[in-house]
């Protein structure tokens, strides 16, 4: 019996130790769980704080750029576009008028102006195209139909203008732009005007206030159709026409 009591006591001691270990482990796990939960909440709070500070920093940077950048105004861009159309309303001028045109372009166009082909001198290309148009056509008129409200970004202002280029057709002009037009049909349009709708975008740099890029898109299909009144004929003449969709008149000036 004494042995049984000893064994029973020993078993109770072992069981007690096991229970104590279980209690300690349970308490440890609960404490660890609480600590992990606290750390996770702290991480979430820190991330929210970092996001808030980052957003605030971005807003401060935007405010700084807005305060330091030159002011872009729609009035300024409107004057620039209006002056451009006014000076070139009838193409390239001669004498003092021609010098005024060149002086204006040099003052408002960037030295590295992107126009029609980024591999060439954009400003020289612009002047050359006005020279070609004025050489090919006896008379021309540039009419601004609508200038949209400028789009202002951090570094530039974009002005979209819709214009019509009215080109008077002489026998030489017709032969130049529509070499595939038969003589009989060509004779019928001598003296008439070719009306070319053109969409233009002026990209004005915020820092320099100069036009860094000028894009043009001419609806030459509509122009040919309105002149000839026949879809097949207009499609045929456009196949060999040097008048491009970007309004470039690709002919050699003699």
UniProtKB/TrEMBL annotation:
Q: What is the lineage of its organism?
A: Eukaryota, Sar, Stramenopiles, Oomycota, Saprolegniomycetes
UniProt name for this protein: BZIP domain-containing protein
Q: Which Gene Ontology molecular-function terms are recorded?
A: DNA-binding transcription factor activity
Which parts of the sequence belong to the BZIP domain?
9-73
Q: Which Gene3D superfamilies match?
A: Classic Zinc Finger
Classify the source by domain of life: Eukaryota
């Amino acid at each position: 019996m004494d042995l049984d009591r000893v064994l029973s006591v020993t078993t109770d001691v072992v069981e007690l130790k096991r229970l104590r270990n279980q209690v300690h482990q349970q308490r440890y796990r609960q404490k660890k769980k609480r600590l992990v939960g606290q750390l996770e909440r702290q991480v979430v709070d820190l991330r929210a704080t970092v996001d808030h500070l980052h957003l605030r920093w971005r807003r401060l940077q935007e405010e700084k750029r807005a305060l330091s950048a030159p002011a872009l105004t729609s009035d300024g861009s409107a004057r620039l576009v209006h002056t451009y159309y006014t000076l070139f309303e009838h193409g390239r001028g001669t004498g003092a008028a021609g010098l005024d045109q060149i002086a204006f372009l040099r003052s408002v166009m960037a030295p590295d102006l992107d126009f029609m082909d980024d591999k060439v001198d954009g400003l020289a290309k612009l002047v050359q195209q006005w020279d070609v148009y004025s050489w090919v056509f006896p008379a021309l008129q540039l009419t601004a139909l609508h200038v949209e409200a400028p789009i202002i970004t951090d570094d530039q202002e974009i002005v979209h203008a819709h214009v019509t280029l009215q080109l008077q057709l002489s026998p030489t002009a017709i032969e130049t732009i529509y070499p595939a037009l038969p003589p009989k049909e060509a004779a019928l349009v001598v003296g008439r005007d070719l009306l070319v709708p053109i969409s233009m975008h002026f990209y004005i740099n915020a820092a320099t206030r100069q036009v860094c890029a000028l894009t043009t898109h001419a609806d030459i299909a509509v122009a040919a159709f309105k002149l000839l009144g026949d879809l097949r004929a207009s499609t045929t003449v456009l196949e060999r026409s040097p008048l491009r969709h970007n309004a470039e008149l690709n002919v050699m000036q003699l």
